[in-house]
Amino acid sequence: MERKFRLLPGVVQVSLGHGEVPADVVPVLTDAAELARAHRQNLIVVSGLGDPATAHSVCAALEEMHALGAPPPFKIAFVAFAFPQYSAYHFAERYAQRFGIEARVMVSVRDATAWLGPRERKARPPESAEQLRR
Q1: Which domains does the chain have, with CATH numbers?
Q2: Residue-wise pLDDT tens digits, 15-64
Q3: How far apart are CA 61 and CA 59, in angstroms?
Q4: Could you tell me which residues come within 8 angstroms of residue 49 by beta carbon, excluding any fewer than 6 positions away?
């Protein structure tokens, strides 16, 4: 299966394409989730030509992501340009909720990036008034 990973500001983008069987999707999405987790970023999955994703394979990938311990808040934006993939990822939207993962299927990378926004980081504790005076 062809896959491309890109580190973008605030997100990891993986492009899927030219797979043989639906099970090909599982290790690719798991690897993408590991990369996103390591960089504390959200994930954009772009469905390309020949993406063999099915509802079952995407749900299996979500289960694997959960097993990795994807830290909340974790969001996944699925970008699908063809109906079979859109249908599979649309089903995965609700399934992801079981694991505390927020997912949404979109039809453009721009909309997906806008929806994801910057990943929330832990805020630094406020400085005391005494530290501010120094």
Answers
A1: 2-133 (3.30.750.24)
A2: 998 888 999 999 999 899 888 888 888 999 999 888 999 999 999 999 98
A3: 5
A4: 17, 18
| Per-residue pLDDT at 127 exceeds 90 | no
Question: Which among 78, 73, 66, 59 has a CA at the least distance from the CA of 14?
Answer: 78
* Alpha helix segments (H runs only) across the chain: 25-38, 55-68, 83-97, 109-116, 129-133
Closest among 127, 95, 128, 106 to 43, alpha carbons compared: 106
Q: List all residues 6 or more positions away from 100 whose beta carbon is below 8 Å from its beta carbon.
A: 66, 72, 74
* C-beta neighbour count of 80 within 10 angstroms: 22
